[in-house]
Amino acid sequence: MKNTIKILAAAIVIISVVSCQNDKKPNYQYMPNMYESVGYETYGEYRVFPGEQEAMQPVEGSIPRGWMPYDFENSNAGYQLAKDTLKNPIKYTKENEAAGMQLYTIYCAICHGDKGDGKGTLVQREKILGVPSYDDVGRAITEGSIYHVMYYGINSMGSYASQTNEHERWQIVQYVEKLKADLEGKEPRIDQEKGPAPSNLIPAVNKRPEEEEQHATTEEHKDAH
Ligand code: HEC
Description:
Blueprint: H1 2-19, H2 32-35, H3 76-85, H4 94-107, H5 109-112, H6 121-124, H7 143-152, H8 166-183, H9 198-206, H10 209-224
Helix pairs in contact: 3-7, 4-8, 7-8
The structure holds heme C.
Heme C binds near residues 110, 112, 154, 156 and 176.
């Protein structure tokens, strides 16, 4: 008898709990602070923020990580200033030249041609007009102007600022300068590596620590005898 009452009581409790559930409304939250954290959630809606949005515009003048501001304006004056004053910060090594060549082949050769003479595939197929040769005397391109046009684009040539990073653009600049030198029949610039001459390096590289140790032990042997 007692048992029947217990079972009945339990059944009433369970039924009343289950029957109150409404599928169209959010269910009860037994420990709400586990669902709704005290800290602001990314993209959450809160009254304290302008527009009630947690996600806000970065403060004016913020710079994304790994990105450097480019100080030259997208204008004729900015172009001229870059042309006259902006210098390539990377060393003109064979490695940078090879990396520049790869990037150039991907991004530029389709219009400017493998030799930089302005006779790329798109020009031959008459898809685009007015692609200059890099040795065009009237344009007299410089390392600064090459970088500038890659950054902002120029007329029908688009910007390459989003496809390439700063270092890659400077590698392309080195390669474009090499193509220009080749077209003009000049020697392309390659910077001399600084540092000790290779002959100084060889003994240091060949000397192995074990040899020194062996030496020390034979010395000890001698002393012992
Ligand atoms: C879609 C075709 C196209 C591609 C791709 C292209 N260019 Fe150009 N480029 C042009 C055209 C067209 C001009 C001439 C623009 C003008 O002055 O009217 C030009 C001009 C130039 C100039 C001369 C600008 C000056 O100072 O007068 C340089 C340097 C240059 N491009 C470099 C590059 C480099 C580097 C790349 C690859 C990152 C590239 N271009 C990719 C079409 C292209």
